[in-house]
Task: inverse folding
């Protein structure tokens, strides 16, 4: 597993880079790595999407402040404020950062943060720092990963299918497990911890490559990579505030704005 690669590193910038520098770096990298300039290869297409996503965060003052807050509050992301060369295209034969590896690391860092929140016995999961409880916000993160990343990548939960029962949409767990009064009905999970650790176990089986990242997921006109980037952005949005709540700060969490209505809860 490679180390965490930040949006700043993707654009080859310091964490304190001014907006003009961010724009300049984006223009440079766009010209260099645009698929049109690289025979429309899958590698360049996926790499360009990462560059575009990083720019979308860092060029928006509100999203950047939220992202910086996450980097600062995270228990697992390094705090180094040193420049890094922009991530190379897969034409480099060795010692390169692969898009698939970077995205897989993003998923794992998200789950480490969630695991730390769930393991904190001093944290009251019933606190409502917004329209929902902490437990429900955590479930939004987990269920999104389950439905839009693990399922399309072939690591879905087949508990109900194996028993010939109707499939459960992972998003239903926000209500089923979100109250803390766990269901006694025949469902795969009876607690948020049980659900989380099953998702964690299934994440260990994830495997991406440029072709599977680029391909549309069954039944939708979106790619697996778009789903992973959305999961990353959603998780950073909520974790940046949940980690502050964990530190005892008072915050009001706003609902995440999805890039497509397909993802709506």
Result:
């Amino acid at each position: 597993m490679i180390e965490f690669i930040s949006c700043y590193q993707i654009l080859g910038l310091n964490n304190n880079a001014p907006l003009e520098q961010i724009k300049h770096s984006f223009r440079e990298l766009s010209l260099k790595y645009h698929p049109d300039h690289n025979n429309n290869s899958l590698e360049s297409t996926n790499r360009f999407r990462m560059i575009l996503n990083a720019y979308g965060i860092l060029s928006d003052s509100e999203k950047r402040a939220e992202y910086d807050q996450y980097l600062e509050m995270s228990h697992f992301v390094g705090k180094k404020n040193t420049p890094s060369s922009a991530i190379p295209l897969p034409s480099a034969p060795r010692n390169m950062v692969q898009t698939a590896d970077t995205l897989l690391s993003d998923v794992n860092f998200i789950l480490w943060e969630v695991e730390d929140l769930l393991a904190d016995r001093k944290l009251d999961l019933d606190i409502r720092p917004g329209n929902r409880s902490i437990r429900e916000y955590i479930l939004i993160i987990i269920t999104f990963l389950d439905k839009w990343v693990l399922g399309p990548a072939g690591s879905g939960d087949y508990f109900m299918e194996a028993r010939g029962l109707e499939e459960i949409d992972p998003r239903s767990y926000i209500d089923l497990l979100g109250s803390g009064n766990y269901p006694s009905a025949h469902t795969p999970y009876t607690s948020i911890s049980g659900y989380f650790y099953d998702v964690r176990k299934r994440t260990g089986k994830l495997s991406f490559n440029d072709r599977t990242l680029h391909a549309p997921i069954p039944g939708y006109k979106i790619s697996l990579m778009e789903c992973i980037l959305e999961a990353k952005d959603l998780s950073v949005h909520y974790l940046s505030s949940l980690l502050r709540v964990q530190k005892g700060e008072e915050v009001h969490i706003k609902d995440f704005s999805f890039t497509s209505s397909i993802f709506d809860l």
